[in-house]
Amino acid sequence: MQLLLAAVLAASALVTPQLSGPFPVGTFDAHLVDSTRLDPFQPSKNRELMVTISYPAKRTGTRAPWLSPGFAEVIDPIISSPAYLDIPAGTVDWAGTPRQARVDAAAVPGTWPVVLFSPGLQTPREFYAGAADDLASRGYVVVTVSHTHETVAVEFPGNRVERGLMQDGKPETMKKAIDARVADMRFVLTRLPRLHKWADTSRVGIAGHSYGGYTAGETMAHDRRFDAGINIDGAMEHTGEGGTYAPGDVVTKGLDRPFLLFGGDLGERELSHVDTSLTRTWADFWPNQRGWKRDVHLDNGAHLGFSDLQWSVPQIAQISPERRAGLIGTINPEDALKAQHDHVAAFFDLHLKHRNTTLFDRPRHPGIRLVQ
User: Fold this and answer.
1) φ, ψ for residue 242 (rounded to 5)?
2) Whole-structure pTM over 0.85, yes or no?
3) Which of 79, 223, 268, 283 is most buried by a 10 A CB count?
4) In 3D, which of 113, 343, 342 has the Cα closest to residue 225?
5) Are residues 187 and 208 in contact, defined by beta-carbon separation less than 8 angstroms?
6) How does pLDDT run across 28-81, given as a tens digit for each residue?
7) Are 336 and 301 in contact (CB under 8 A)?
8) What is the CATH number assigned to the segment(s) 2-370?
9) d(CA 202, CA 368)
10) How far apart are CA 118 and CA 31, in angstroms?
11) How would residue 338 be classed by pLDDT, with cut points 50, 70 and 90?
């Protein structure tokens, strides 16, 4: 008890990375209800979502919290547990950590391309705020989505928190999750013009991390409104625990639009289309992809280093070097962030803004390897 009390008293806020684009960023949350669809995890209710919109803005308003106080209270014992950071609860002042984005800041008028982002399995959208804000600072409307009842928790207006309801990783559960995610992303895009008047929905990208990377590809396979996509370190299958190999349509059919694979390491193994030790799906997807394609690898970068843990973990002194390496890898954190932000932005600049880049022709960042 004394240890926990001391940790709470010493709880410190973290410093979020500076934006790399020319624009300040505004942000707001939106509560959406799909009146045409029942929630697959709670069939007695319509599907409802929380999304965060980040956009080019004027430098007005106060900085947004990385995590709201209510959500921070729920997530702290989970993210601090031995399964993740393995630190005493209360070590980090999550709600006292401000984003670079500002709440409800006045938007810069323009026709900004749109990028929708889907988090990892059971992971809240809040843990990708850094990447979303950085891309928005480069001239995009970025929408991050929490997939209700799959993600560990979602906070709705009125301090209502809906917790995750996934009880297992069986094939049928994983299939339900990917189908819900694809429907979520399509619905959010349909609703977006009502949320942000400067969002140009004639130029739409989609990206995601882990199961969100699968979501990005599978959504493109089912909806031609999405022009280009990125899979960040995610197997594109819903095989589940003990199931037979079940790749998505994006794998078996490929796409006729641009798609980037951006992989990391798991110990001595890597996620790429030339290494099938983690998943066959990237290798199976590669010959079926008819549009522009590249396979970019972040050497010595671990799976969760593609989330906000990449910048937050190095600031938490209580995390052991071994735990840190397992979470975010051994690559220099600043190098990893710059490589991720630059490659994501360059991909969407190329395919949504039609700006040429040489970033995918030869590596220009420490740790980046062009697999093909």
Assistant:
1) 75, 10
2) yes
3) 79
4) 113
5) no
6) 999 999 999 999 999 999 999 999 999 999 999 999 999 999 999 999 999 999
7) yes
8) 3.40.50.1820
9) 31
10) 16
11) very high
25-38 and 98-103 strand pairing:
parallel
Q: How far apart are CA 288 and CA 58, in angstroms?
A: 43
Q: Look up residue 344 and give its two tokens.
A: 């994501």
The three state secondary structure string of the chain is: CHHHHHHHHCCECCCCCCCCCCCCEEEEEEEEEEEEEECCCCCCCEEEEEEEEEEEECCCCCEEECCCHHHHHHHHHHHCCCCCCCCCCCCECCCCCEEEEEECCCECCCCEEEEEEECCCCCCHHHHHHHHHHHHCCCCEEEEEECCCCCCEEEEHHHEEEECCCCCCCHHHHHHHHHHHHHHHHHHHHHHHHHCCCEEEEEEEEEEECHHHHHHHHHHHHCCCCCEEEEECCCCECCCCCCCCCECHHHHHCCCCCEEEEEEEECCEECECCECCCCCHHHHHHHHCCCCEEEEEEEEEEHHHHCCHHHHHHHCCCCCHHHHHHHHCCCCHHHHHHHHHHHHHHHHHHHHCCCCCCCCCCCCCCCEEECC
Interacting residues of 202 by C-beta distance below 8 A, sequence separation 6+: none
One-letter amino acid identity for 48? E
| Residue showing tokens 């684009």 | 21
d(CA 185, CA 194): 15
